[in-house]
Amino acid sequence: MSFWTGSSKIHELYTAACGLYVCWLSIRGVTVLLAWMPQGRTVIVHKVQEWTLMILKTLVVALLVAGVIPLLLGLLFELVIVAPLRVPLDQTPPLLPWQDWALGVLHAKIIAAITLMGPQWWLKTVIEQVYANGIRNIDLQFIIRKLAAPVISVLLLALCVPYVIAAGVVPAVGVTPEMEILMQRRIYPFLLMVVLLIGILSFQIRQFKRLYEHIKNDKYLVGQRLVNYERKSGRTSSVPPSNPVAE
Q: Which residues cross the membrane (predicted)?
């Protein structure tokens, strides 16, 4: 533990938990190898290659989904909510990656839970598909292309676009240094308010359109389906009598 943490003190509970996990993994690996030995060397090599590939895929997915995305989410939350409320304008807000990552993990879990409980849309479909596949049938290309890449792109745009505007466009206009600092510190919550306002307005416009269509259909649309309509048949209901056969 000191190799990873340095001189900082670690509680004995963490060392005991790590030791138990190492022992459990070692015993599990030995039992799996003993179960594979009667099947032959070829089967063991194939199983080892399969599990190694699955572990590598899982590590890549964990790095993206549990590492990069929570870090970007926590950093965005720090710049949008925490820093404007807690740090004055005359001080530089400290950015702590570990704390931002832990905060992002919490927010990512909350967002994932709300997404799964909400209506059907592309993010919910992708998360349900990833859960359905599981670790054994993990699809690295699908996760990167459908989940990691869009979410990381949106978070990077949310982080970079305000910074480019505050650090690149605003100084080119020729404002005072105080205004530059104010823009750099307040542009993230300002753009968040703008995005929320646009989302609320677009939602209300869609609702008014639906209400308008509903009122228009109720007032001017006479009917939407035919009732009491029976198709006439060209055949007669009575069967003509057959001619008597002469004897």
A: 13-37, 58-81, 101-123, 143-166, 186-205
The yes-or-no verdict on residue 236 having pLDDT over 50 is no
Q: Is the pLDDT of residue 130 over 70?
A: yes
Determine the Cα–Cα distance for residues 45 and 53; give it in Å rounded to an integer: 12
User: pTM for this structure?
Assistant: 0.73
Judge residue 16's burial from the number of C-beta atoms within 10 Å of its C-beta, 0-12 exposed, 13-18 middle, 19 or more buried.
Answer: exposed
Closest of 82, 124, 131, 128 to residue 103, by C-alpha: 82
- Sign of the Cα pseudo-torsion (108, 111, 117, 119, in order): negative
Burial of 159 (0-12, 13-18, 19+ CB in 10 A): middle
137-178 residue pLDDT tens = 888 899 999 999 999 999 999 999 988 988 888 888 877 888
CB atoms within 10 A of CB 74: 25
Q: How far apart are CA 153 and CA 91, in angstroms?
A: 30
Domain boundaries, given as residue ranges, for the chain? 47-187
